[in-house]
Write a structure and sequence with these properties.
Blueprint lengths: L1 H9 L3 H23 L13 E4 L2 E4 L15 E4 L2 E4 L15 E4 L4 E4 L18 E4 L2 E4 L11 E4 L2 E4 L1 E6 L3 E6 L4 E6 L15 E7 L6 E6 L3 E6 L8 E7 L13 E7 L6 E6 L3 E7 L7 E7 L14 E6 L6 E6 L3 E7 L4 E7 L12 E8 L3 E6 L3 E6 L7 E9 L10 E4 L19 E2 L1 E4 L3 E6 L2 E7 L13 E7 L8 E6 L7 E6 L2 E7 L15 E7 L4
Length: about 550
């Protein structure tokens, strides 16, 4: 044949040669097709190199056939094979035999094998305790068991368990129950604690800060962040800060201007708490091993005397505020600071700095701590234009809530708008739809930028401006002057609330059932939902993505 082809080609009859080649190829193709379409019952019925799939001999390099049209009503097409739907399971927990999980398409309990498909969420697993999430094989759980420390079981998936959260102007940071710290949002000034070469300016999914798992607290400032690391079971530890250092707010000296990774603040290891403000920071240290005596230190910007040292000089290192000997709590705002000092019989409230809108609670500026009230205070929160606090009720985990300062948007919760108000004993925050004796009771309250939020009796309330849906209530188009219930689904129980005290484009986050939900403005990824879009707004609580 080759000789004939050569002669024909040599003679110029190219068409005859090509026709002959096509004829030979058709014979070979038809022969192989016949082999591939042999009926079979078992693999032994098929030629070498092929297998019996769906009663037809198929070679390994064959494309998977779409058998969906040939499968019966009680069958599902999987990898070219019709599988009978037993419909004996809906969830992984329905499969009681060890080593099996539920295939949600077929309703069958299938064996967990390492090569099972994980292209569709929650379908297969690679071990008894593993399942699919985000297209990856991960450890699963059943009836609350099987999760690592720092995680909990939710819909048979192990998800992060969070214990604390703090919001900056454009970023968010939170600590898991296992001590890991994560941050997300804007990293323009290093406030996420992520090396510059590992991050873009904006990060929309929680990113772990370093490799540590011993963080006990975190506080997000306007453009910087501080946190405390401590040994297991200890309530005190070493202080680290990172981000913008333009006004020495990191407490590590005047340079560098930006720090992208956590840096140790002095060599003390007795820091109890820290609060990061707008260009300045304050923290509490223990003077004794049992922390029964505590000092307050502040540093950074001091133009409005917010450091409490009696002058307006900036401090580039932590400096003691001499007024206090046993301070319990401290909070920083934009240009004012408040603290609770413990005495023998009660906890006194002090504020200092700029008295814009009467947010110090008194009718004057204060270059050093000014006594606001001698009642027994349990909680305090400060923001750009307001201050909120809770008075202690003996034997109770909740107390009477008060807010003072600007009331332009009803953020004081006093059924009124307009004039700024100082602290007044008989003007407390009022909640909607509750009995009169319970209307001003809160377990936690936070003062944000022109709005406030609080928690009581496993319910979340917000009030004030709703310019960017920071109140998580679509029924409020502009503002509301009474503490209004945030509509949460049944079974959603908030344990903490964190607000944005710096920005007129605020966001809000809450830990609900150990998971974090965020809402409001999200242009920089600060909501942790994977979205980075200018003028992005989320109007209802949305769960952050898993780190």
């Amino acid at each position: 044949m080759l000789a004939i082809g050569y002669v024909s080609l040599h003679g110029g009859n190219v068409f005859k040669v090509l026709s002959f080649i096509v004829f030979i190829l058709l014979i070979i193709s038809c022969s192989e097709l016949n082999i591939r379409n042999i009926d079979c019952s078992v693999d032994e019925d098929c030629p070498s190199g092929s297998s019996c799939i769906n009663k037809i001999c198929r070679f390994k390099d064959d494309l998977i056939i779409d058998c969906s049209e040939t499968c019966k009503d009680d069958e599902t097409c999987k990898d070219g094979e019709c599988i009978v739907n037993d419909n004996n399971c809906k969830l992984k927990s329905d499969c009681t035999e060890i080593g099996f999980t539920c295939h949600t398409d077929t309703g069958n309990c299938v064996e967990c094998l390492e090569d099972k498909d994980c292209s569709t969420e929650n379908k297969f697993c690679d071990q008894v305790s593993f399942t699919c999430k985000n297209r990856e094989v991960i450890q699963g759980c059943n009836s609350g068991s099987g999760c690592s420390i720092g995680e909990h079981c939710e819909n048979e998936i192990c998800v992060a368990s969070w214990k604390s959260i703090s919001l900056g102007e454009k970023h968010t940071c939170a600590i898991k129950e296992n001590g890991e710290l994560f941050c997300w949002g804007s990293n323009e000034l290093g406030q996420l604690g992520i090396p510059l070469n590992k991050s873009s300016n904006n990060v929309s999914i929680p990113k772990k800060v370093g490799e540590y798992n011993d963080w006990i607290s975190v506080s997000s400032g306007k453009s910087h962040t501080c946190g405390i690391r401590a040994e297991a079971a200890s309530k005190i530890g070493a202080l680290y800060c990172w981000g913008s250092n333009s006004t020495s707010e990191l407490g590590t000296g005047n340079s560098p201007q930006v720090k992208y990774i956590p840096e140790l603040v002095n060599n003390q290891s007795k820091w109890l708490s820290v609060s990061s403000g707008d260009g300045y920071t304050c923290g509490i240290t223990c003077k004794t091993s049992e922390c029964k005596m505590r000092d307050l230190l502040c540093w950074g910007k001091n133009e409005d005397k917010q450091l409490g040292n009696g002058n307006s000089d900036k401090e580039n290192m932590p400096k003691k505020v001499t007024t206090f000997n046993n301070v319990l709590k401290v909070v920083t705002g934009v240009n004012h600071t408040c603290a609770i000092d413990e005495t023998e019989d009660r906890n006194l409230l002090y504020c200092w700095g700029k008295n814009e809108n009467h947010k110090l609670g008194q009718n004057k500026n204060a270059p050093s701590p000014l006594l606001v009230d001698s009642s027994n205070w349990d909680h305090i929160s400060a923001s750009a234009n307001n201050t909120c606090g809770i008075k202690f009720r003996s034997g109770k985990t909740s107390g009477w809530a008060y807010c003072w300062g600007s009331n332009e948007y009803g953020q004081l919760g006093r059924v009124s708008y307009g004039d700024s108000l100082g602290y007044e004993y008989d003007n407390s925050v009022i909640k909607e739809g509750v009995e009169e004796e319970e209307e001003d009771i809160f377990e936690n309250i936070q003062s944000g930028y022109n709005y406030s939020c609080g928690i009581n009796d496993s319910q979340l309330y917000c009030w004030g401006s709703n310019s960017h849906n920071q109140l998580a209530n679509e029924d409020i188009t502009d503002k509301v002057n009474i503490a209004t219930l945030v509509p949460l689904s049944s079974g959603m129980i908030p344990s903490s609330i964190s607000v944005n005290k710096f920005s007129e484009f605020p966001h809000t986050c809450s830990i609900i059932n150990k998971s974090i939900y965020c809402w409001g403005a999200g242009s920089y990824g600060q909501l942790g939902d994977g979205q980075i879009q200018i003028n992005s707004i989320v109007s209802i609580p949305k769960k952050i993505l898993e780190p």
